[in-house]
Amino acid sequence: MVRAMLEDYRAGLTIDRRHEEDDRAAGTRIRCPALILWSLRDDLEDLYGNPVKIWRQWAPDVRGHGIDSGHHVAEEAPRAVASSLADFFAGRSG
Description:
Layout: H1 2-13, H2 15-26, E1 34-39, H3 44-48, H4 51-55, E2 62-67, H5 73-76, H6 78-89
Parallel strand pairs: 1-2
């Protein structure tokens, strides 16, 4: 698991970044509804701002909210994540 996490970080700094730049240049957009969840006890918002606002640059239909957890949201708050996903797929998130 640790290796997979590190490889994800590595990709985010290399090939994923290049793909993002290519997509931006091409005007690529996400056409389906998107759910964005993040940790409220991490520094994501302090570093980058509101994640929903950021993702709206990529997709017109973005929903989401912070979850009271640390960095590992799914492991630390599984019920909140599951509830958010269930609401999203049932069309109840807004």
